[in-house]
Amino acid sequence: MRKRIFVVTTLKFGIKKYPDWSKHAGKKHWDIIDNRTVAWYSSLRDAQRCVEENALDIYGEGDYPWALIEETMEGVYPDIKNEWWYKWKGKKKSKKGKYQGKYVLAKKPIAYKRVVNFGIG
């Protein structure tokens, strides 16, 4: 029996230009600039704790203002069962150089309404 896992991915969205070979060459669009899968857990609670406590600075000193937990099954070409989106709320840096804030639950960006498998896939 395949085991359920919870994949934690951090993301950064921004404005990108379409490549020269595209029919939209030179035009700008909102897209994922960078993402990284930082962890996976066998329990949702552990995955939530990782995000909510910014474990080992998954925020990346301000580089990854979005985080996502995807529930899936281990194996090849996983199917996403559920997802939980988070967005960083707070200041980027305090006077002491530390990041003040935390990830809070957020709505999935509408442009990605039909997109899944950000972490594995």
Radius of gyration: 16 Å
The oligomerization state is: single chain
Q: Unreliable runs, pLDDT <50, ≥5 residues?
A: none
Largest sheet: 5 strands, antiparallel
How would you describe this structure to a colleague?
The protein has one helix spanning 44-52, and strands at residues 4-17, 28-41, 66-73, 82-91, 100-106. With 121 residues, the protein is mainly β. The protein has one domain. It has a five-stranded antiparallel β-sheet, covered by helices on one side. A hairpin with an 8-residue loop joins β4 and β5. The model has no long low-confidence stretch (mean pLDDT 91).
List the helices and strands and how they pair.
Blueprint: E1 4-17, E2 28-41, H1 44-52, E3 66-73, E4 82-91, E5 100-106
Antiparallel strand pairs: 1-2, 1-3, 3-4, 4-5
Keywords:
7% helix; single chain; 121 residues; mainly beta; flat
Summarize the structure.
This protein is mostly beta strands.
